[in-house]
TrEMBL record:
<feature type="transmembrane region" description="Helical">
    <location>
        <begin position="93"/>
        <end position="113"/>
    </location>
</feature>
<keyword id="KW-0472">Membrane</keyword>
<dbReference type="InterPro" id="IPR042100">
    <property type="entry name" value="Bug_dom1"/>
</dbReference>
<comment type="similarity">
    <text>Belongs to the UPF0065 (bug) family.</text>
</comment>
<dbReference type="InterPro" id="IPR005064">
    <property type="entry name" value="BUG"/>
</dbReference>
<dbReference type="Pfam" id="PF03401">
    <property type="entry name" value="TctC"/>
</dbReference>
<keyword id="KW-0812">Transmembrane</keyword>
<keyword id="KW-1133">Transmembrane helix</keyword>
<protein>
    <recommendedName>
        <fullName>Tripartite tricarboxylate transporter substrate binding protein</fullName>
    </recommendedName>
</protein>
Length: 325
């Protein structure tokens, strides 16, 4: 009898695919005791992208037996989640999902300095973002939208997740790409992706963005029209041209990865990193990425650390230009 999981077929197949020796090697030693009941913290609401990734990672660790009994924990508000995590208020061993949106939220909260306190483990995925309008929108093409933004950015109202999020950053960057002042962006922030989709479908906001997964059914059903994907490449499952294909020199993904904290030993960081590397190579994990329209951005500790520093500087510049900080 097989056991179905959210991102893979059979627990026995997962474990055998990674190899018994690999599992045994990761399961041994004093570090094992510190990872029992590993918590993976996701800032925000249940069902958000951070939550989805935290649960997928926890399941991956569990079904492979690399880090048994891992669990995802949601903590509302990114600044609060980061403070609780970094200050060691949770008694268990823990990891946290860090994303482009989290970098923006911390920057707006005046807590960007806390990014240096994280211990990067691995960058994992990038979430593709479409720019969508209602099916009957006067913006028939990306060119129509860019021309409207260039004329009067304040007249083009956007919907997306909270200020500082990848959605907000994309709207700011596209406004700049149109040659307009990003400080004049008209942006309506929502607390959930469902609310963003609702506003877009009702026509309350002419333009919206967010995770492709959140809009896929409406795009396929014809109630929303995707003008472009902001990602560097297309996804094979839905025919949406990228911004660059349409002459706009802009590409971005809402990246996500795992971080730990300074008090955690290098041996434990290595253990987390090795476990995640093995999970990321499993076919079930790769299939899950495709199903959620996520790009595989796997990168290890040192490269991820440099990447976070570069992204933090870029986000600070963008949000400053947009008048958000």
């Amino acid at each position: 009898m097989t056991t179905k999981t959210a991102w893979g077929p059979d627990r026995r197949v997962v474990a055998s695919g990674l190899g018994a020796a690999a599992i045994a090697g990761l399961a041994g030693g004093s570090a094992a005791a510190q990872t029992v009941g590993l918590e993976i913290i996701a800032a925000g609401q249940p069902g958000d992208g951070d939550d989805q990734l935290a649960r997928a990672v926890a399941e991956g660790f569990g079904v492979t037996q690399l880090l048994p009994r891992a669990m995802a924990i949601d903590v509302p508000r990114t600044p609060d989640a980061a403070a609780e995590f970094l200050d060691g208020k949770r008694p268990r061993a823990s990891l946290m999902v860090l994303s482009l949106s989290a970098v923006g939220a911390l920057t707006i909260a005046g807590a960007a300095g806390r990014l240096r306190q994280f211990r990067p483990v691995a960058r994992l995925i990038g979430e593709r973002q479409p720019i969508v309008v209602r099916a009957d929108s006067p913006y028939r093409t990306l060119d129509d939208l860019m021309a409207a933004i260039a004329r009067d950015p304040a007249a083009v109202r956007w919907a997306g997740r909270p200020l500082g999020s990848a959605d907000h950053q994309l709207a700011l960057r596209l406004t700049k790409a149109a040659g307009a002042d990003p400080k004049r962006l008209s942006y309506r922030a929502a607390d959930t992706a469902a609310r963003v989709a609702f506003w877009a479908l009702k026509g309350e906001t002419p333009v919206a963005t967010g995770a492709l997964l959140e809009f896929a059914s409406q795009i396929r059903g014809g109630t929303l029209r995707a003008l472009a994907l902001a990602s560097p490449d297309r996804t094979p499952d839905i025919d949406i041209p990228t911004l660059r294909e349409q002459g706009v020199d802009l590409a971005m993904l809402n990246w996500r990865g795992l971080v730990s904290r300074g008090a955690v030993s290098s041996a434990l960081i290595d253990r987390f990193g090795e476990a995640m590397l093995r999970v990321s190579r499993y076919p079930g994990w790769l299939q899950m990425l495709d199903q959620r329209f996520w790009a595989n951005l796997y990168d290890e500790e040192d490269a991820f650390e440099r990447f976070i520093a570069e992204e933090a500087a870029q986000v600070t510049r963008l949000l400053t230009e947009g008048g958000a900080i």
